[in-house]
Amino acid sequence: MVPTITLNDGVRIPQLGFGVFQIDPGADTEQAVGKALEAGYRHIDTAQMYGNEESVGKAIAASGLARDELFVTTKLNNDRHGRDEAQKALEESLTALGLDHVDLYLIHWPLPQRDDYVETWRGLEQAKAAGRVRSIGVSNFQVAHLDRLAAETDTVPAVNQIELHPDFTQDELRAYHRDHGIATEAWSPIGQGGELLQLQEITALAEKYGKSAAQVVLRWHLQLGNIVFPKSATPARIEENLDVFGFELADDDVATLSALDAGNRLGPDPDEMN
Ligand code: NAD
C-alpha cells in the first residue's frame, strides 16, 4: 500500500511511516506502535533522545512481523557526538530496540558550535561498514553542513530529516537535496496538529476532496516526494494518517499549499541549537 523510495545507497524506504516523538515510554509507546503496525505501517521513526526505543522494540517483537518487513530509524543523541562515541551510542540503541541492526541511523542535530559533526559522520560510516546500520543520514543539517560533509568525507547522506510543512517549505534545502541525491524527510509534517490544519486554504481543500486537513497535508508531502512519519497516539488518527493513498491532489492544489510558505518554523533553528 505504501510506496517506497530508493535511497542513494540502493536501500528502499517506505515513504510514509510512524513517528514516536513525545509518546511516553512504556505502555503508551507499546500500544501506539502496536496499533500502527497492526494498521499497516512498516516504518518507525524513533531516537535515543525520545527515551522510548525499548518500548518500540517490545512492540516490534510482539507484532510477530519479520525483521525484513520493517524499516526502523533511530538517531544519535546530542551528547554522544564523536567518531567512537557515535558507534557506542548506536550499540546502546540496538540493545534497547532488541535489534541487530537499524535500517537508518541519523545524526540528530549538527550542533555547529561543537564543530564535530564531520568526525561524528565518520563514526556513522564505520557503523555502516560494520553492518550495524543499512543506511546513514543526518537531521537538521543546513546547506553549509552538508557542503562540509561533501568536501571532507566519502559518503553522501542518504537522507536529511528536516522540519517541513506547508507554511515552512524549505525550498533551498529541498533543491540542494535534489541536486545531490539526498532524500528529504519531513519532520512535524502536519505542523504538530496546530494552527496549520485550521488554515482556510487547507480546510477548503479538505472539503473539496472529502478528506481531513491532515490527510490533505500528508498527500501534499507525498506528491512532492517527501518522506513523512506523522505521530499520533490516537488509534483513529493512526489509521487516518495512513489512509492517504486513495486520492490525488491536482497540481494547482499542490501549488496552493506550497504557496502557504511563511517561514513558520516550530522547532529550534539548527544553526543555534548547540
Ligand atoms: P506531527 O506534525 O506529526 O504532528 C503530530 C501531532 O499532530 C499529534 O501529536 C497530534 O496532536 C496531531 N495529530 C496527529 N494526527 C492528526 C490528525 N489526523 N488530525 C489532526 N491532528 C493530528 O509532529 P511531530 O510529532 O513533531 O513530527 C512527526 C515525527 O517527526 C516525530 O514523531 C518524530 O519521529 C519526528 N521528529 C523529528 C525531529 C528531528 O529533530 N529530527 C523533530 C521533531 C519530530
Task: Describe the overall structure.
This protein has helices spanning 27-39, 53-63, 83-97, 117-129, 143-152, 171-180, 200-209, 213-224, 235-242, 251-258, and strands at residues 4-6, 12-14, 18-19, 43-45, 71-76, 102-107, 133-139, 159-163, 183-187, 227-228. The chain is built from 10 helices and 10 strands. With 274 residues, the chain is α/β, with parallel strands linked by helices. The protein has an 8-stranded parallel beta sheet. The chain has a two-stranded antiparallel sheet with strand order 1-2. It is globular, with a radius of gyration of 18 Å. Strand 8, helix 6 (171-180) and strand 9 (183-187) form a beta-alpha-beta unit. The chain has a single domain (14-193, 226-247), classed as NADP-dependent oxidoreductase domain (TIM Barrel, Alpha-Beta Barrel). The termini are far apart. It binds nicotinamide-adenine-dinucleotide. Residues 19-21, 45, 108, 139-140, 161, 187-193, 197, 212, 214, 229-232, 237, 240-241, 267 line the site of nicotinamide-adenine-dinucleotide (NAD).
Topology:
Blueprint: E1 4-6, E2 12-14, E3 18-19, H1 27-39, E4 43-45, H2 53-63, E5 71-76, H3 83-97, E6 102-107, H4 117-129, E7 133-139, H5 143-152, E8 159-163, H6 171-180, E9 183-187, H7 200-209, H8 213-224, E10 227-228, H9 235-242, H10 251-258
Parallel strand pairs: 3-4, 4-5, 5-6, 6-7, 7-8, 8-9, 9-10
Antiparallel strand pairs: 1-2
The structure holds nicotinamide-adenine-dinucleotide.
Nicotinamide-adenine-dinucleotide (NAD) binds at residues 19-21, 45, 108, 139-140, 161, 187-193, 197, 212, 214, 229-232, 237, 240-241, 267.
